[in-house]
Amino acid sequence: MVATVALGLLAVRGRGGRDGEGGGGGGGLAEWSVGGRSLGTVFIWVLMAGEGYTSFSYLGAAGWGYNYGAPVMYVVAYMSCGYAVGYVVGPMLWDYARRHGLVGIADMVAHRYGRPWLGAAVAVLATVFLLPYIQLQITGMGVVVSTVTYGAVSLEWAYFIAFAVTTGFVVVSGLRGSAWVSVLKDVLVIGTLGFLAVYVPLHYFGGYGELFERLTAERPQWLTLPGAGSGAGGRGELGVGWFASTTVLNALTVVIFPTTVAGYLGARSADALRRNAILLPAYNVLLFVPMLLGMAALFVVPGLTGAESNLALFKLVVDSLPAWAVGVIGVAAALSSIVPMAVFMLVIGTMWGRSVLSFLPRWSSGERQKLASQAVVVVAGTIALVMTYVAPNTLVRLSLVSYEGMAQLVPMLLLGLVWRRLTTVAAVCGLAAGVAVVCGLVFTGNDPVWGVNAGMIALVVNLTIALTVTWLGPRERAGSGGPDRRPDGDVLARDPLPGTGDQNEAPSVVGAQG
Description:
This protein is mostly helical and 514 residues long. The chain has helices at residues 2-10, 29-34, 41-52, 55-58, 60-67, 74-100, 105-113, 116-148, 155-205, 208-218, 240-254, 258-265, 270-283, 288-300, 312-320, 323-356, 366-390, 392-406, 410-418, 424-443, 454-472, 488-491. 69% of the residues lie in helices and 0% in strands.
């Protein structure tokens, strides 16, 4: 933890005043929120891999493998497909933000539709969907630290450590600090999971052959869809239809997820994002390790139920390794909570500082936007920490709709950036309908519905309404009431192709918010 804070603080050294978008130590808002748009392929790779490889990868993936088996492979499927989509979408969003001086999805929506209030509304909605992820990372780190210290560090203190460490370096060094800490995290994650992938099968079964022989003989349903379990709420509903629809939905959503976009916007060039999209699937190989070891735990620590199943991997670790090795693996898992939590907090702070609090005259200047964003980071982290202590199930319940709810922003953002005719009214109507449908289906226990991910059903409704209102409704007009006469280049995104001179083109409207 000391090394984590030190790396986070060192990252900002010598970066003061480099972007000209606000004052304060460590440069302005663009330096703090998107790393001054100067991160190369390696830093972008470790940062975006860090966002995808969270405490879920150690806890949830192993727990799903333990309880249900094959359905958990959707994580590998959607992330790989998402990287392919990101190969196209990432450079477009990077170029759009760079040309107009934007720092997040709320900024992009406000600029695209010419309505700052819409950007503020998107920031509020995205915050509702992101806060559960901060709370879940705090909870995940607490469980990991308490387990690997054999209870010496209580859950309550582990929760606070997660909050304090993350908030400390995020407030000071922003995205660049997260990227530096991701390097330390990735070294530990790759090393520890590589070790466990070899050690556990050999130690408990004598090798992979013996492990798979036992799985095929004693737990064959864990190796095919729909996996183990059946009936309402069981994995019997998670068949091929659910797997395919979830993969498509999440692959589309992950490319516009605010934390993913923060990684895009921190890149030095569009080519860095393309190279990153090619390299990132290699990191997915690591995801097979906790999934497989979760199934291996069926034979070593049988009978885990409920939340206990999430500790399947760590029970193997604590049972078979000396304390110092348990500690090293625990640090890797803890950093897998801290890095994504840092980016979630950073994104929330940036959206509020730029799109919501900017409506207050006192906080609308560039010098104050960074300060406001940093204050929001502390507030958001504090809310998640307090809720972890006093109402742990409230935000966890919200997390059920987080990813599927965020998917409803896909038409407004992606379709809006490539199709000029999509109107504000149509995009808002579609978004409202999609969020209503997904909340209704999830909270009434109808997810999946007809064997399909509820978020995909909601996205189809969203898109249908958006297209219908666009075709049948009036043409778009700007916020002033007159027609939107901006040229397509100011409204739509483009793909900055190599060799066209667009790769490093300076922003045309620095700090513009539409």
